[in-house]
Amino acid sequence: MTSIKNNHEKWMKAAFREAEKAFEQDEVPIGAVVVKNGIIIGRGYNQCESLNDPTAHAEIIAITSAANTIKNWRLKDCQLYVTKEPCPMCAGALVNARINMVVFGMYDEKEGCCGSLYQLCRDNRFKHQLTVKGGIMEDPCTLIIHEFFKKQRKKD
Amino acid sequence: MTSIKNNHEKWMKAAFREAEKAFEQDEVPIGAVVVKNGIIIGRGYNQCESLNDPTAHAEIIAITSAANTIKNWRLKDCQLYVTKEPCPMCAGALVNARINMVVFGMYDEKEGCCGSLYQLCRDNRFKHQLTVKGGIMEDPCTLIIHEFFKKQRKKD
Question: What is the ipTM of this complex?
Fold first, then answer.
């Protein structure tokens, strides 16, 4: 169990480093990585503001990047690590991409769809279901988002 | 009422032309347009296979394109027309993009999230809700998809 938890933390740290890039660029600090066979094949951080794109969430960018790496849109046997519970768009993207497991940091009671408001990843009416694990490195993943909004409020 | 219905059909025809482009490129034929103040500001058709990208649904491409056109990720006062009921990913994207209304052709009982399996666009726990109208040009939007799968089965 310890080694599984350590592995989760290892990859969540990589996702967290992506969130830090978002923070530095004045974007809501959420980061994600896609892992296959112990290798990161896709990374992403939230870039909605800089790209003027409401779909530019960390997960979407990491999934697109991973699929491009392996030249296949089906991300079989891949895990996605993300610092915040995915929204409906991103939870749907995980299902569409055939991701094997999603591991997230902070729970999101406002729009989380991997357990909080909905559990879109486990609905067997969809073509694909995946394993869901929340709360890994929850404190730092939550803190960086709180810090971001504190900084934004000071600016206003 | 007649003029509203005519307008819906006018824009759905534009979405349908996008679906035809997908058909010609051996992609599941689904098309979408984003309309603002009576002008198309974004178009898209399903390109999952050609782009190797599970997020390359018609709606996501049309939304990204529209947001790029107006240089703002908030697509206020915009309508999205799409030939098939959006999946969870795309329904979530409509909410994230603050789209004002979604109009779709074919209902999708397998993964539709604008009424069939879920109604993600009307959940007032999310930051934004939008008007949903289904069944516009339902027959041609359904037929083109059936034709596509018939063609694919012949290939196999």
Answer: 0.95
